[in-house]
Amino acid sequence: MTNEAPAPPVLSPVSPAYRRYALSVLLIIYILNFLDRQIVAILAEPIKNELHLADWQLGVMTGLAFALFYTVLGIPIARYAETGHRPRIIAVAAGLWSLFTIACGFAQNFVQLVACRIGVGIGEAGCTPPAHSLITDYTPREKRASALAFYALGTPLGGLLGLALGGLIADAYGWRTAFLFAGLPGLLMALVAWTTLREPRRQLHTDMAALKASRPDFQTAMAEIRGKRTFWLIAFAAAIKAFIGYGAAAFLAPFFFRNHGAELAEIAGGFGLGVTGFLGVALGIVLGLTGAVGTWMGGYLADKYGARDLRAYVSIPAISTLLGIPFYIAGLLADSAVAALILFAFPPILNTLWYGPGYAAVQGLVRPQTRATATAVLLFIINLIGLGLGPLGVGAVSDFLSGPMGLGSAEGVRWSLMIFILFGAVASGLFWLARSSIREEMVS
Fold first, then answer.
1. Pfam family example for this protein (predicted)?
2. Can you give the residue ranges of every domain in the chain?
């Protein structure tokens, strides 16, 4: 007699052509996921002015309100995704967050806006854990980092579109209309996901009982994850990076408005644009396109060098994270908006290199039937610390420096961002420590 769970059925691989199609659909959905999540960054200043909000309230709106439900619900949804129909989970999630994004445009006060952002978080909780699990089933191991990096392009590209389109639409029609335009495409992609994405498990109708029997219960799955030192080092390193990244994303537009407003207005006028639209396009290009380059490079480098030495999955993020810090500091201290934008183009390349190798490492550290749960736990840590506390922390420190410390709103937000960016050295160190255990702990 044995108490071991039966081995999971081997999934039939999809064709390369269908895999490319499915990855493209998932990328578009994830772009919209991040567009809806990050559009508030460029809209923060006009929202603050109309609703009379403090910076800490902007932090709650852009981070904590979204992150609490996003992180908490991610784990039970991921547990269901271990045996459920993952494309349909993603489709329902996309439809839900899109409706709540549209609802943000009708909010009349801070409480209503926070409630809508909570709804966006509830919907988006059902996207990435099942998507990572699905992509891993679609893709051979030797191409896994590149495939997950391709999906992760949704982060910089969604940020680009959120900033650019959000700023342009807000200038032309107001910030409320920007939320409407952001939410509508997600409803269409929810239908596409429901009708065209395949669930590989459904090709194995007779083996579904074996698949469900092979799924470890939550305690067993957590015991597997808990025993992986590498997982926790990657998780907390990524959480610190998210803490910095989300905090900066929420307050870079206010930083430019407050420190370089006159120069931006002059430049925007030369292009026939309003200042919000121009800044949205500029930040979208600077942060989004360069972030996309870094994300792609991370997947490529991880597949190339990880095949020789698994430590590359954490060495690449460790080195690149450290190299990005000086560029951020120089950008914050630059005297002109143009110089600041140029300097801010370098950190996204370096700071997004971790996506492909980091996510691929986590998928390989656990058995196939625990992958969605591992992703959900990873995102729980990343988003609770990063998205939940990053914008709130930057906003609270900015308020403290602006008011009690007497620096004013412009210098307050500048030095608040400066303080938080220095935490990148800690994230780099954690990634580097993971080199000592990743080879022994990789299992799939």
1. MFS_1
2. 16-196+217-441
CA distances to 164, 177, 286, 289 from 343, rounded to whole Å, are 19, 32, 9, 14
**Cα dist from 267 to 164, 233, 262, 338, whole Å:** 16, 44, 9, 9
- CATH, domain 16-196+217-441, list 2.60.40.10, 1.20.1250.20, 3.90.1010.10, 3.40.50.2000: 1.20.1250.20
**Would you call 266 exposed, middle or buried from its count of C-beta atoms within 10 A (0-12, 13-18, 19+)?**
exposed
In which band, very low, low, confident or very high, does the pLDDT at 368 lie, cut at 50, 70 and 90?
confident
| Confidence check: pLDDT of 64 > 80 | no
Pairwise CA distance, residues 199 & 33, whole Å: 21
What are the Cα distances from residue 138, in Å, to 224, 356, 438? 23, 16, 24
What are the tens digits of pLDDT across the range 265-313?
A: 999 999 898 888 899 889 888 888 898 999 999 989 998 998 889 999 9
Token code pair at residue 306: 């990880």
Contact 353, 316 (CB under 8 A): yes
